Automatic annotation (TrEMBL):
Entry's Gene Ontology BP terms: CAAX-box protein maturation
Protein name as it appears in the record: Abortive infection protein
InterPro entries from the UniProt entry: Rce1/LyrA-like_dom
The entry's keywords: Hydrolase, Membrane, Metalloprotease, Protease, Transmembrane, Transmembrane helix
Residues spanning the membrane: 21-50, 74-94, 115-136, 148-165, 186-205, 211-230, 242-263, 283-304
Gene Ontology molecular-function annotations: endopeptidase activity; metallopeptidase activity
Domain CAAX prenyl protease 2/Lysostaphin resistance protein A-like: 153-246
One Pfam family matching this protein: Rce1-like
Keyword Cell membrane: no
Length: 340
C-alpha cells in the first residue's frame, strides 16, 4: 500500500475530510460542545445536584475548579468533552459516510483489549518515571493509600470516567479527524504537523506552561500518532491518554499538564530535583523524564501490528482510492476532449 493501513482505512467511505475543513471543524465542535457541557454542568450545580459548597466565580475559574471534589471534577470533565466527541462521530458517519470501524473504533470486544493494553502501558510508564525519580532522590512520594470502602472508591471511578472521556475525545479529534483523515488526504508529514500543532496549541494556555512542556506535547503527539499507525486503531491511544492523565494525577499524585485535578489521590508526590528533569509545577510532562517515558513507550509499541480486520478495511479503502483517482482522471480527459 502507498499509505499506512490507518490512513487507507479513511478511504473506505465516500469522502475524506481535507485539512482546511478539518481544523475549523474541530475548533467549532470543541467550542460549541464544551459550551453545551458547561451550561449543563452549571445548571446541575445551581440546582444543588452536585457539590453544594462551591462559590461560583467564573472570573477566577481555575481557582474555583480547585475547590471541586473528585466526583464533581469527573462529571465536569465528562460533560464538557462528551458533547465535543458526539459531533466528531456524527461527522464521520454522516459526511464522510464511513463506519466507526474505519475510523479506528471497530470490534468492541477486541477494542476494549486494545484500550486496556494502552492503559496498562501508560500506568507502567508512569510508575517507571515516578519510582525512577524517587530512586534518584528527585521525587518524594507517600506510600499508596488503599481506599477503605466503596464511598472512597466511587469518587475515583467517576474521575476515571471523566478522564476517559476527556482523553478519548482529544484523540478522536487530534489523531482521528486531524491525523487519519488529513493523512489520507494530504500525506503523513502534513498529518503529523497539523495534529501535533493543534494538540500543542490547545494545551498552550494551561497553567505552569514552560518551553520544555510544549516540546513534550509535540513529542507526545508524534509518539501517539505513531501508536495509532502501528495499531491502525484509536482504541489503544484512547486508553493510553486516559490512563496517562489518571495515573499521573490521581494514582501518583502529580499535577496533570500544570493543574491538580480531583481531590482524591492514592499517593502524593513532590518534586525535589531539578525542574528541567522532574517538571516541577507542570507535572512530569514538563520535564526530561517524560522524554524517557515516551522513548520507552515507543519501544513497547514497536511490538504492535494492525489486526486482520483493519487490513480488510484498508483494502476496501485502497480500492475506493483507486476508483476515485480513475474517476478524476476520466473527468479531466472528457473535459479536455470537449474543448474545441
Amino acid at each position: 500500500m502507498s499509505k499506512p493501513t490507518f490512513f487507507m482505512m479513511a478511504e473506505a467511505g465516500k469522502r475524506v475530510t481535507a485539512a482546511w475543513w478539518g481544523v475549523p471543524l474541530i475548533l467549532l465542535f470543541f467550542i460549541v460542545g464544551s459550551t453545551i457541557g458547561a451550561l449543563i454542568f452549571f445548571a446541575l450545580l445551581g440546582a444543588g445536584l452536585l457539590q453544594d459548597d462551591i462559590v461560583l466565580d467564573l472570573e477566577n475559574f481555575s481557582a474555583m475548579m480547585a475547590t471541586f471534589d473528585s466526583t464533581t471534577q469527573g462529571i465536569y470533565l465528562f460533560l464538557t468533552f462528551i458533547f465535543c466527541a458526539i459531533p466528531i462521530l456524527v461527522w464521520i458517519l454522516v459526511f464522510e459516510k464511513r463506519s466507526l470501524a474505519s475510523f479506528g473504533l471497530g470490534n468492541f470486544g477486541p477494542g476494549l483489549v486494545k484500550f486496556a493494553r494502552g492503559s496498562v502501558l501508560a500506568i507502567a510508564i508512569m510508575a517507571v518515571m515516578t519510582y525512577g525519580l524517587t530512586a534518584l532522590g528527585m521525587v518524594e512520594s507517600t506510600a499508596p493509600a488503599v481506599p477503605a470502602n466503596w464511598t472512597m472508591v466511587w469518587p475515583l471511578l467517576v474521575l476515571l470516567l471523566g478522564w476517559t472521556v476527556q482523553g478519548s475525545t482529544e484523540e478522536l479529534a487530534a489523531r482521528g479527524l486531524l491525523f487519519q483523515s488529513v493523512g489520507a488526504r494530504h500525506g503523513l508529514i502534513v498529518a503529523f504537523i497539523i495534529s501535533s500543532a493543534i494538540f500543542t496549541l490547545a494545551h498552550g494556555s494551561n497553567e505552569n506552561v514552560t518551553p520544555l512542556f510544549l516540546l513534550n506535547l509535540v513529542l507526545y503527539s508524534v509518539f501517539i500518532g505513531f501508536y495509532a499507525l502501528r495499531e491502525a486503531s484509536l482504541w489503544g491511544i484512547c486508553g493510553y491518554h486516559a490512563m496517562w492523565n489518571f495515573a499521573q494525577g490521581n494514582i501518583f499524585g502529580f499535577a496533570v499538564s500544570g493543574s491538580y485535578i480531583g481531590a482524591d489521590r492514592l499517593m502524593t508526590s513532590t518534586s525535589t530535583g531539578p525542574v528541567w528533569i522532574t517538571g516541577g509545577d507542570s507535572g512530569l510532562e514538563g520535564g526530561v523524564v517524560t522524554i524517557v517515558g515516551l522513548a520507552l513507550s515507543t519501544v513497547a509499541v514497536l511490538t504492535i501490528k494492525p489486526d486482520a480486520h483493519a487490513k480488510e478495511i484498508a483494502h476496501v479503502g485502497e480500492e475506493n482510492a483507486v476508483a476515485r483517482q480513475k474517476a478524476r482522471t476520466d473527468a479531466k480527459a472528457a473535459k479536455a476532449a470537449a474543448k474545441p
